[in-house]
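ARCHIVE CARD
Drawer: 12
Card no.: 0347
Subject: one protein chain, sequence and derived structure
Cross-reference: see card 0346
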Amino acid sequence: MVDLLADHLGFRPPLIPAYAMAQPADHARGLNFASGAAGIRHETGNNLGGHYPLSEQVEHFRTVVQGLAPDKQNQQLGRCIYYVGMGSNDYLNNYFMPDYYTTARNYDPSAYAALLLGDYERQITDLYALGARKFVIAGVGQIGCIPYELARVNDNQDRPPPASIGIAVPGISISLGGGGGNASKRKGGCNEEINSAIAIYNKGLLAMVKRLNGGNQLPGARLVFLNAVNSGKDLAANAAAYRFTVLDRGCCGVGRNNGQITCLPMQTPCDDRSKYIFWDAFHPTEAANRIIAAKVFNSSSTADAYPINVSRLAAI
């Protein structure tokens, strides 16, 4: 998603490099601080191995800022766009893995969302203190409808495709270029327990964006909220127009919906990934991401990007 938005902004290859692989000469152009499986909470994703949570990604950014000349800091940091998409792993690889994490026993969905959003706001405030002013804040999609969750319904093969699509937009990116619950409360194949929890989080995230835009806490900051749920519903409702023929399976994976085990090394994927909304058990294909990126970059609807689109944010 970040690379595609960068393309809309006129960036050309080489793409924005990962922080861990970047050279000092790359820093002024932009960096990607994303870390696979990372979340807002430190323990999120530990089931999948080592990673950098959001707070450590912000510390990496701090290191880069401290290495810039003062004139570069003043000239560039406030003009960059900081894309931050966090939260999906805090649910898939934390809250809805009760055999591994205790968060679901310690917090109800509303309390957990409030906990995440409090930490999230502190990290946004830290980025602001380091010079960030333009933020793109991506909401979490209906991840109860991703192939991983659809595969967990025993009779899923007899069900119709879901009426909405869960889009997980992971990681934190800079210009910062960025599980599963039980089998109950399902509707049309989706895990509505997860989707309901995500709805609480997204509502709070949008409220945070509105408050930070309109208050005195971060003067001069502009935040744009991307509605991932709306993007997923649009992909499902207009699949034929977008030339998607497979809505509920990954292009690469194992088991029902190619979602019981995600894409494995050396595995042969589907023949034509452009017909699939999902690449694997969790992530959208490039074709799906291109549609979403074009929409949030250009859309005049606040149902897609609030309060303005990414193009207008860049022009400020």
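Annotation on reverse: Confidence is low (pLDDT under 50) at residues 154-160, 168-184. The first helix runs from residue 2 to 8.
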